[in-house]
Input
Amino acid sequence: MEYLALYLRLSLEDEGDKAESNSIGNQRKQILEYIQCDPELGNYDRKEFCDDGYSGTNMDRPGMQALLKEVRENRITCIIVKDMSRFSRDYIEMGTYLNQIFPFIGVRFIALNDHYDSKEHFGNTVGLDTAFQTLLNDLYSKDISIKVKASFESKCNNGEYVFGQVPTATQFRRPGQESKDGRVHTWSGKAVRTILNNRFYLGEMAYGKTVRKAVGSKNGTAVPKENWKVIPHHHEPLISEELYQQVSSFRPEYSTKRKREKHPLTGKIYCGGCGYSLNYKPLRGKNRHRRFECRKHALLQIPECCTYINADLLEETVLFMLNKELMLRGNAVKEKETLFSFQKSGIRLLKKKLEENRQELKKLQTEKDTLYEEYTSGTLPAAAYRRKADELTEQMKFLSADRKREAKRLACLEEEFQKTEEDMKQIIRYSHIEELNQEVVDIFLKKVYAYKDKRIEIEWNFRR
Output
């Protein structure tokens, strides 16, 4: 079933302006009134997607991502927004969707206040007025960003705290406290070092630690510490300078951490009891055997934890299980050779049908153009022209819909065939593995769980 999508968005800046025309309720009311006046749109079931308090400078919004997911799954036939700035304020992003993505997928796009309906621009790029409007929306968001940054910097220079919650040690979860997901979390060494090295407790406030790459980007670039902007004596210190120097002597730059031997299974092997990753202990010092240890067992004391497992035994077991799995899958692949031939044949037939469809559409378009020329030259009456043109349009609509369905079938079939073919190549290439290495582990293993009774479970990286 195809739906009519209503997209609503209100950014924090709009909310601050208290402009009623930009409120969520007003957007919804305006769009629904438009739908009621259009008999064609009124026949569709509706779905509403809303982003309340999100900027339009990027597409990383919950409601937007849900909408685009529905679009990719061909469940949306039309999208209606109050104006284009509600959908996106990024000039390039907006142009890409209007000129390429939506026309290719066959989604109609309507922006009420901009008087834009993609149905009226079928086969053409957006007009100059629409392009200029999207550019203005982009420039407006960049201007707002500069003003907000300047305002924040001015407040910081005046000693105001503008960074949300004040950093205190109570923000961190108490050791041994169980979280909502049922796992017992603990403080890491990095978290403790962050607390001990925070000069905020000395009465200093630092800002300008990161710089955004672009307006709307969530990724920032770290600024060197010497370039931070620091305000001393900003607030009453919580500890003395002497105490700070004493506890902050454990600095990351003074770390004595050694360069350790890396095992291929590092980052893939987990404790089946507590769910935390296992640490690799190579042959060094008192370690007589290579092994993996549960890094949280000593702290959490969970009885089901796999305290340790011999690395040689683990490698041998994983290698045996991997070769067995490859053999089983290789046999299954051989049994499906007939299916592969059928898939290849199906792909060829669909491609041939799509080409025939394209040629037929081209032929009908040529007939329609010729018909129009006869009408403009006066050799064909208006009534006859309209009747024949409508017939050709209906035929073209039917062929376009058929082409869309067949193209979707072809894409699914090609994807399935390609995945199976890639798995076949990997299985043939690694038909018998004698040693675990990083390449093999990365290709075939997703996760490995080790249990207290030395039992091993593997999550494979094979495509289903």
About this structure: The first strand starts at residue 3 and ends at 10. The CA atoms of residues 91 and 135 lie 5 Å apart. The chain has a mean pLDDT of 79. The two ends are 27 Å apart (CA to CA).
